[in-house]
Amino acid sequence: MKKPIVILFNEVSVNARKDETDVLDQVQFVDAALKELGYETFPVQFSLKIDKVVEEIRRIKPMLVFNLVESIQNHGELIYFAPAVLKFSGVPFTGSGADSMFLTTHKLLAKKMIQYHGLPTSPFFTLEETHLLQSDRRYILKPIWEDGSLGLDEDSVFTRSNRAILEKIKTLPSEDYFIEEYIGGREFNISLLATRDGPMVLPPAEILFVDYPEEKPKVVGYTAKWQEDSFEYQHTQRIFPADSQSQSLCRTLSEIARKCWEIFLLRGWARVDFRIDQHNRPYILEINANPCISPDSGFVAATREAEIPFPMVIDNILKDSLKEKL
What distance in Å separates the CA atoms of residue 178 and residue 142, rounded to the nearest whole number? Predict the structure, then answer.
């Protein structure tokens, strides 16, 4: 008899955009891998009707829940609800717990924690601290909660002399946005996969901004990620650099990413994003617990580069979620 696994994912709205429907690609991809591994799968939608979600999971009696919930009603700040409910239900589940999901999704808290542990991150400010911005620096206005580059694009990059955006900042809720110093250099993604011996660092990926005009801010924003007919989407490319200078830098990034895994108590799979300044100094942009694992995602691209079949990736994630019971 095949062992049952629930694949938990967020409801998708009627007129959902690509960033929201992407979770359905993840469900299909994970479902196929779990079936290849010999499990019986049960997709269950997560919503604010929590009693019904818990009732459905308990009816199925799964050996564990594969958690792919990214938001509730497209609100990323509620992403930690799912692991919190799963912990309450007493069912083993994949990926990071509620505390880790909350801390890594709240970008301002995450940066404070990164800074507290002595890891590099670019200077940051609340919306009430615009008087601290320096005239010779560029800054970027970021949403505190949203992932998938929602609310982020090159128009978010500004200087202290940009009166229009400073006036706009005065109208924004300080609990939803913050300001970060813009680092205009190379961008890297370091993906991590749980193993019995700790997190495995997958091949580091670099994002290239190809043929970008000199004055155009280099931002992996919403258009670069989701709008296939845009300049940003078509001129943003992922590579896995192999030159010696990059390899030395990537070793440093990998070590920092491992420390992030430990500090934020990450589980299953994760990704840490970096920017590199003109002096080759790395800065953590953000930490992604349970990042997207659709077929075209950065995490899955890194597993392919490492020549790890996707069912083996899923098997590692399952074993990590069950290791306390093995």
Answer: 6
- What are 234-266's pLDDT values in tens digits? 999 999 998 888 899 999 999 999 999 999 999
Report d(CA 55, CA 93) in Å as an integer.
16
Element (H, E) at 7: strand 4-10
Rounded distance between C-alpha atoms, residue 75 and residue 50, angstroms: 16
Q: What is the DSSP letter of 318?
A: H
pTM of the complete model beyond 0.85: yes
Tell which phi-psi region holds residue 302, choosing left (phi > 0), alpha (psi between -120 and 50) or beta.
alpha
Residue with tokens 């490492």: 306
Predicted pLDDT at 325: 47
- The pLDDT score that the predictor gives to residue 149 is 55
Q: In terms of C-beta distances under 8 Å and separation of at least 24 residues, what long-range contacts does 245-252 make, across chains too?
A: 246/204, 246/206, 249/188, 249/276, 249/280, 249/282, 250/188, 250/190, 250/204, 252/282
Please choose, from the candidates 96, 153, 21, 151, the residue with its C-alpha nearest in 3D space to the C-alpha of residue 288: 96
CB 257, CB 190: distance < 8 Å: yes
Question: Of 309, 173, 178, 201, which Cα lies nearest the Cα of 262?
Answer: 201
Give dist(CA 141, CA 35) in Å, integer.
43
267, HSE (Cβ side, Cα atoms, 13 Å): 21
Show the tokens assigned to 216: 């155009």
Sequence-distant (≥ 6) Cβ neighbours of residue 197 within 8 angstroms: none
Q: Which residues contact 265 (CB under 8 A, 6 or more apart)?
A: 96, 97, 99, 100
Q: Which residues of the chain have pLDDT under 50?
A: 325-326
Residue by residue, DSSP assigns 73-135 as TTBGGGTTHHHHHHHHHT--BSS--HHHHHHHHSHHHHHHHHHHTT-----EE-GGGGGG--T
Q: Running DSSP on this structure, what letter comes out for residue 221? A: -
